[in-house]
Amino acid sequence: MKITDYYASVERSLRQNANISQVDAPQAFLTSDDYNGLFRCRVHFWDGSYLDIYETVSTELGYPVRINYAYTYLRDGQRVFRYDNAPHHPDVATFPHHKHIGLNDRLAPTDQPTLGQVIGEIEPLLGK
């Protein structure tokens, strides 16, 4: 699988979600070769909230491996949650994977989520 195939499939699945009103053109779609790249975009939901997506991905093994990621969900300009794997919280049991929750930035251990899982977590929050 080439990196462009992976990102095309991500964008296609986002555009098919009924709760998503707009997928901005990727802010960055950089490839260092046929199998490695960076993807950033903003996904807008019908209620005005949005999800910022940041992924550095390798497909050299024939399937996507997210090297770095951050999924930040915001409503009214305020962060509701963010998943990421930045190595800045070594005390979290699932290091480097963790979740920042709310404005008080409470940390929670978490496994690495898929983008589908993140969107699935957002959907029940829409319109609240």
Helical percent range?
Answer: 10-25%
> What spatial form do the alpha-carbon principal axes imply?
globular
Spans of at least 5 consecutive residues whose pLDDT stays below 50 are none
Query: From the helix content, strand content and strand pairing, which structural class follows?
Result: alpha+beta
Helix count, DSSP H or I runs of 4 or more residues = 2
Question: Could you state the order of secondary-structure elements as H and E?
Answer: HEEEEEEEEH
- % residues in beta strands: 35-45%
Query: Biggest sheet, open or closed, and with what strands and sense?
Result: 8 strands, antiparallel
What value does the average pLDDT take?
Answer: 91
Count every beta strand, where a strand is a DSSP E run of 2 or more residues: 8
**Quaternary status of these chains?**
single chain
Number of domains: 1
How many angstroms separate the termini? 39 Å
Alpha carbon gyration radius:
15 Å
Characterise the protein shown here.
With 128 residues, this protein is α+β, with helices and mostly antiparallel strands. It has one domain (3-125). 16% of the residues lie in helices and 43% in strands. The protein contains two helices and eight strands. Strands 1, 2, 3, 4, 5, 6, 7 and 8 form an eight-stranded antiparallel beta sheet that branches. Strand 5 (65-75) and strand 6 form a beta hairpin. 20% of the residues are buried. The mean pLDDT is 91.
